[in-house]
Amino acid sequence: MASNKKDQIKTDGIHGRYGRFRDSRNQNDKDKHQVPFLVRTHWKHGQITLDDFNKNQTQEILLYLFLSSKLRDIVDQLKYQLDGVYRRDIVFKVSNVYLDQHGVQKKKDLGTVHSVKSGKDESSDLKDHGFKIGDILMVEIETKNQNKQPISQIAKE
């Protein structure tokens, strides 16, 4: 351990050993030179259309992400921030909303991530799908089993 306070700051990072900001030695090599950016993420129980998005009929959450963030990381952050989406039968459909060359909003499906099970889409990152800083994410939250109680009654909106 370090002998004085100045040496302790150098060895433990900015805010201590278990602090909020860790030393750069603990990060992945590909994330060392990237900075996180704020992504507007709109979510809704059920299907989302661009009309719902334009009429502000969705909930919005702000997430800090990297371009190398996987779809599973995005879903895990949403599950952490939203109440009632820890059920085992929930499916998250992630889409990207962007402006095309003519200034028209377009929606591109990025993939589907199951709440618990692993799948083929969850290992792809935002950069693979052509996500750019300034784009908006839309997440549709659906249940696979229709006989159970709807998510909208469980989640606190």
TrEMBL record:
GO cellular component: nucleus
Superkingdom classification of source: Eukaryota
GO molecular function terms noted in the UniProt entry: transcription corepressor activity
Entry-linked PANTHER family: HISTONE DEACETYLASE COMPLEX SUBUNIT SAP18, SAP18
Protein name in UniProt: Uncharacterized protein
Protein's organism: Paramecium octaurelia
Lineage, highest ranks first: Eukaryota, Sar, Alveolata, Ciliophora, Intramacronucleata
